[in-house]
Amino acid sequence: VQLVETGGDLVQPGGSLRLSCAASGLSLANYHMSWVRQAPGKGLEWVSFFHGAGSTNYADSVKGRFTISRDNAKNTVYLQMNSLKPEDTDLYYCNAKWVAYNYWGQGTQVTVSS
Fold first, then answer.
1. Dihedral over Cα of 82, 87, 92, 98: its sign
2. Residue 82 in 3-state DSSP?
């Protein structure tokens, strides 16, 4: 089982990025998916959630700017990030969870700076 995040980059404030989380060895359609971020020396901060049935939820800090989506055919979950702010700078992880199964990717770095 593997989750691989890609799409992180250096972007200017106000810019956009799309993160991808591609899965192998499991079908993401069966899992609840989350994006979580972590700044150096700080704890994990939950960002967004995609319920297995299709509903979504967002942290107040990203609501209206970020959108989580899932492509079952590509077995990939995305995080579209618009109107990026310097405080969005973090290492972003995707997480797949279902009953006792809990998987993490290795993370992708997002840096928002002018």
1. negative
2. coil
Question: Given this model, what pLDDT does residue 78 score?
Answer: 98
Local structure of 83: helix, strand or coil: coil
Regions of the chain with pLDDT less than 50? none
pLDDT at 55: 92
> CA 27 to CA 43: how far, in whole Å?
28
State residue 9's pLDDT score.
Answer: 97
Is the Cβ–Cβ distance between 89 and 15 less than 8 Å?
A: no
CB crowding 47-65: b at 16 or more within 10 Å, else e: bbbbeeeeeeebeeebeee
Quick check: 102 and 95 in contact, CB under 8 A? yes
Among 81, 110, 80, smallest CA distance to 93 is for 110
Transcribe 18-75 into DSSP letters.
EEEEEEESS-GGGSEEEEEEE-TTS-EEEEEEE-TTS-EEE-TTTTTTEEEEEETTTT
